[in-house]
């Protein structure tokens, strides 16, 4: 296994290509271990070079992004929150997220809770 630190854009591009090749490798195999290590290195590089300014993230925009682009669905959100109507109220800014909701979403979807705890605009019902 030839794994090196990611120091340049070229290193990053090569690591991403290798991750794509290894995607779906079984845990505990050499390829699975390599995938895990490369993903960790890429995450570290990206966090250092392209940090997310969490002070500008709107929690509802984040949820919409996760359901439209992030591989999750509004039905999954409804399951996490207990009902379809509750998920719809959250996404339509008629109900605020609670700490319990934020915890469930963060744990299930592997989203940092800090992206969901910011104040945001609610619309009148």
From TrEMBL:
Domain of life of the source? Bacteria
Which InterPro entries does the UniProt entry name for this protein? Antitox_HigA (IPR039060), Cro/C1-type_HTH (IPR001387), Lambda_DNA-bd_dom_sf (IPR010982)
**The HTH cro/C1-type domain, residue ranges:** 73-116
Provide any one GO MF term from the record: core promoter sequence-specific DNA binding
Q: Which Pfam families match?
A: HTH_3
Q: Which BP terms does GO give this entry?
A: regulation of DNA-templated transcription
Check the record and name the CDD domains matching this protein: HTH_XRE
Listed SMART domains: HTH_XRE
Matches recorded under PANTHER family: ANTITOXIN HIGA
The protein, known as: Helix-turn-helix domain-containing protein
């Amino acid at each position: 296994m030839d794994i090196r630190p990611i120091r340049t854009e070229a290193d990053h591009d090569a690591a991403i290509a290798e991750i794509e090749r290894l995607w779906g490798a079984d845990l505990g195999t050499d390829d699975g271990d390599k995938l895990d290590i490369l993903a960790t290195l890429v995450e570290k590089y990206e966090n250092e070079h392209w940090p997310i300014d969490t002070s500008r993230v709107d929690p509802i925009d984040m949820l919409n992004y996760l359901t439209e682009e992030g591989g999750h669905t509004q039905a999954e959100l409804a399951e996490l929150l207990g009902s379809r109507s509750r998920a719809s109220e959250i996404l339509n800014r008629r109900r605020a997220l609670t700490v319990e909701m934020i915890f469930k979403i963060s744990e299930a979807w592997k989203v940092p809770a800090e992206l969901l705890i910011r104040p945001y605009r609610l619309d009148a019902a």
